[in-house]
Amino acid sequence: MATLQQRPGKSAPLLIQQAMHYLPGSASIALPVPQFPSSNSGSSALIVPYRSTSEFRNQESDSHKKIKTMHIPLSSHVHHFISDCISSKLDGDIGGPGEAAKEEVTDGDDSVEIRLICAICRYHWVIKVDKSNAGECGSTPMSIHHFIPTEPSPQDRQKNEANSAGAEAIGVSEDFSLTCAICATVVSISVHGPRLTEDITSTFKQEVIEKRIENFQKTRNEALTGEDQVELSPLAIPTRQQSYHTLFRILSDPLSSESGVEPRTIRLDNISVNTKIDPSILKYFFFRRDEEAGVWRPPMANEGTNESRNIKRLLENAEMEIAIIAWQDSNNTANPYQISTDSELATIRNILRCSGYPTTMRKLGYEDPTTPVSLRCASLGALPDFSDALLLQTFDRQNACDPANAAYYLECLREISTARESEELQIRVVEMQSLGALTRDDLKNAYAEFGIDDPDSFNDDSIIVGVYKTRLQDAPARASKLKSALQVIADARNSAEIRAYLQADSLNEDQSYATLEVSKDADDDMIINSYETKKGTPLKQDLMNSALAVLAKTRRSPRLLSYVESIGLSGPVPEINAAFSTLGVQSSMEDSHIVTVYEIRVSDNPDEITSMRNALRSIAQARKSPMLKHFLSTGIVDLAIEPEASETEPVGLRNIGNTCYLNSLLQFYFTVKPLREMILSFDDSQKEDVTEAIRRGKRIGGRKVTEWEVNRAQDFVHELCGLFHDLITSTESSVAPKHQLAYLTLVSSKDALQDVEPEQSIDVTMADADTKQLVQFPLTQEEADATEITDKKPSSPDVVQILSGEVAVADDDVVMQDKENVSPCKSSDDNILPPSATERRVLGDITIVNADNIDRSLGSTELVDQTVSAGKPTQTESDAEIKTDEVSEEVKKPLLLLPAPESTPSSTLPPAVPPRGDYMNLGMQQDVTECIDNVLFQIEAAVKAQYTDVDGEQIDLVKDLFYGKTKQTLEIGDTAPTAANGASSLGSGPVLVRTKEERFSHIIVDVAAGPRDLYDALGACFDVETVKLDGHPARRYVTLTQLPPILQIQVQRVQYDREQGRAFKSNAPLKFDTTIYLDRYMDSLPTDQLSGADLKRRREEVWAWKEELQLLEKRKQNLATILDKRNGLTTLQTLKTTSDWLLQVRSAVSGISTAVDLSTSSSLLHEKSLLERQDGIGDGAVDKDGSALLADIISEIQSEMKTLDDSIPELDIKIKDLRAKINSQYADLKTLGYRAHSVFIHRGQATFGHYWIYIYDFAAKKFRKYNDERVTDVSEDEVLPFANDEFAQIGMTNFDNSAATPYFLVFVRENLTDTLLEAVKRILPKRPLAEEGEEESSEQLQELEKTMEVENGEEVTEPLSNSQSADFVAS
Fold it and tell me: Is the pTM of this model over 0.85?
């Protein structure tokens, strides 16, 4: 038998039958053989056992899987195949015969080809038989081919591609290839549709011919000139057959022309050509219109090239179709072209070597291929007329070709034997069943023993073993039946895992010792030696494997278990997520904790030791953990084993006490190359002189920095420098941040000052990893004054800060809390903490208050007036100032963008944060961004300023890297009519414009409403909104005037549930791509890219579309809103319920003694008009006078129901169109690109969870996952799971309450990634020789440190020049 892929086949007679019934385009010739039809199948369909065509062609079928079915339609007629050629030449024809349609068939031919055409549908068939590499099927009538669908050979594929080159207009055929499983004979079948397509044949309709002649005569007469012109006589109207014959003669000329000789041309004004046919169809046959010569030039069809051969085939096929049409038009009585109309079925059988095969005399309805018996036979690859002997031969071949579906084939044979009442077939069925052969019913019953209805859902064999064990424990009396059923499943699935379990399960410990011929006190090596000696006997191999596996499990010996695993007896290692699930551990657990859980699991369930070890092996491999690998091989937990450091991979950070978020943040800052180099060279060039800083009034975040804060910040930078040094030089795979660094990072100066004593001293306990000491920081008078002021006023004039409460969690990593959407409750002034001294300008947090409440002593606010006409773009100047022109007195009123008020009403404040009794509970930061603000504030406080801005703010590297600028615009004018959303809009009169430019370090986006795209979320920060200012309507919006090189985006996830009185985390997904573009948010763009007026116009259009979209979505939501909470009914359902009830009332018989109580339905009749009418329905609702009123009410309700029902699809279409317009509005603006760099992830809920970070390495072009001490490579799909179109189908039901979601995103200008980012910086010290001792090692380390200082000093000892700073901002 030929070596082919295992799949179902079909005999040559069945292949011919399928061709006779083939529906072009269904591809059923290449599909598997049919399966028994379902109960609802009709006679016009075959049922095939396949999942999809591509799956069948590329995958082997699995017998344990439920074979799904598909209906394949048959042709409406049985094809009548005739020879595809003109047999002789007509007298006077300028054409000649085509080439032979078939070749002489002889046994010696290696390749035979016949060309056929169906005389009914005019489809062309080419059947080629290639025996060049074939063996022999035999020489008896029983020796018929058994074909398996295969892909075409590379040679045939290349030939087909060559034949199709340059002839695209000819069309594409269906090509099939089948190979005999016995002798390797290859059959190729090509099916091509009619050459005379519907577009061509429609031009030969009699009415079309008459219209064509009419138009031709009209055009010809109009072309005649002169006074004496005489209208030409009408042309004779040809018949359809005459027109076709004209085309036939035209096509015959290029076929009869010799090679190299151009066929005769046809004049463009030829009357016959222009009337009998549509001349435009000649182009389809490759005739070329030569306007200069005034002729049609026929194609060269006999040049021997691929193109000419294809053209020749096209012309010959068209001629043959014209002949068939002529024959059909005469009702098959006239044959003017003398074509052969005899069936070529015998020829087909001859070349496929299936003439005269043995048949049965039983009459079982063989003509219909869709009867149950026909389908059962076809499943075996046979026809119902096969003799019993030939049917059994085909059955054996089908089992050999597709052993996976042997159970189904036995079932087919059993049904055929019953229908035939064949003793020979029935004996074979009984014999096979006695030898253990299974049918699908047997397999179904076996699964039923374990309560499994759908085996497809059990892809993991270990799960079936687990179900078996559970059933065995519940019903030990059924052990024999359960084991037999499991054996059936193992054979059907061909499962090595289940068979191994059954084998091992059949031996106990004593039998295993006896099998290996060792005593119970034998050591592990002796058992292994005995196994090695005896396993060579083939008949004992399985038994030896089982005995060894039993002893490894019962002895729980790491040595034996490792050996069993090494020789493949323990089954496959699961995927990493499945491994975590098997052990019941989190991916964030440390190795030692995972080992502890493993030992507990094995102790509770000793039988599960194999699956537990496989899970532990998977984790050890994924983590590359020497400690876990050592434990697996020895059973000893050695915490001293650490993985070796790599010179090309980053170093992890150990969790020192709920510091997973801190570790993520520090890893991010380490990858920012200029920041890292500045920290490493801090003492050399960047350190701030404290006295000088205080003297000049160092200002950060809009306030002065105290001497104590500068000293504290420099301590922080020193600690951070030490950590960065360790990350570069550590010889371990992870390092631990010092507690002092963690304290200074997580505890801001505000929190450190919270417990200030009356004597103005600060007691801050800072526990170092190595030493513990109490550090006293006395306050100077200046610091005390500054502290007092800080406690009274917010440090940032632009943000109202709302502090969130702190929740203590004992065992979880961190509390995830944000500044917004926290619990509103009353709070006294005593327990309201002042805003953080490190507070930054946050885009999306702007506060506007009424001018009557202004305390003009609070900060300075620079605002500029401008009056412009509505709808005209504003003129921007440098520093975001707008000049005022023609300001009218009546509109020039004070309009101020105010600083935040000193306090917020207590009803809107969250619970106060209790004093921190122990700052070393490090993971309890109250806000995820507060830590970032604290780090940036302390770095700025510690370093020298590059220069001081006009507002007194310090400008330094931090601001160069992380800060941008926004312009907030307020437009105030006359009150216009109320907009659709209820907000007043600006009128058409003069508009007063106020602007203010501010810095920002990060943008806050909200996902509370559900899944969002990042552009959609960012747009909410920049969209226009209508506010009231001193009674005037004002429009407020924000634009960007300067982009930060590093863009930070906080995802607002912590929300507050007012009904339940608790905070919760929103796990709504946020879609973002690797690159985003901020052009749309800019205040202006370069004029060569887009004018300011065009950009403003686009924004206005988007704002209008969003307003309209909001109204449509609100209307759709209202239609789905539950009106009656008792019954859970929407508006439409309420109307339907009311209508049904009223119909019952109307149909009630007259004379009802008890009045109808309508009060129970008053809640359903929600429409005012209906309620008013309802008052007219009472006891007389069904009497003669009230029946008309009731009918009117029912009619009105039903009319309203139809209106609402029709409006929902209309709303969906409008919403979809608006979203498409919004999404495409800025599609062409892609100049200011930002690449995704870091994604901070939180898994858990609002009060607990775990953090890690993904960081992209632009040099290595890959993402890494920094999960505390573990740093691993990950795919982009893990970081950006919603980058594809499936995001549109995502709903909130897809996400649990503890899903891992991004909460902080970092993007970097795409043209600055190489300048700003370096994910890996490693310089490992050279390892000293052992005999040189520690002294040489110390000297090398000192030399390394000097080298690093020199390298870093050369790069960043000087502040960034103006040109360098300019590279970091948008032009």
Answer: no
